[in-house]
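To: structure subgroup
Subject: Chain for Friday's discussion

All,

I'm putting the inputs and outputs inline so they're searchable in the archive.
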Amino acid sequence: MVPATVDDFCADRGSPCDLAHVFVSRNNWPGMVAPSWAEQNFAEWPGRLVLSLPPFPENIGASLETCATGAYDTYWRQFGNTLNSTGRQNSIIRIAWEGNGDWYQWSGVNPTAYINC
């Protein structure tokens, strides 16, 4: 998604948007936590972002159990710095969405690990 698409949709519905929902890459840590296309595409857009992020990249051997130990904290600190450096401190962070299902690697099949992660 790009701001023009969001703005076009909002114009079509007859009301400006002040919120855009974007997903970051899910296949590696840099794509998730470093300034990515999500922040870069919306750099000049004045609205607030909803950023959906998994708790760890998919298909790299990461797990909720490892996450719960704090092993990924450095990456999440980097993500916090990314929000600051891109001026997106007021973003809504949607982490580990749909944890109630069983179709993601971060699904909450182990509730304790999910919560601690």
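Points worth raising on Friday:
The beta strands are 19-23, 48-53, 92-95.
The domain at 3-116 is CATH 3.20.20.80 (TIM Barrel).

D.
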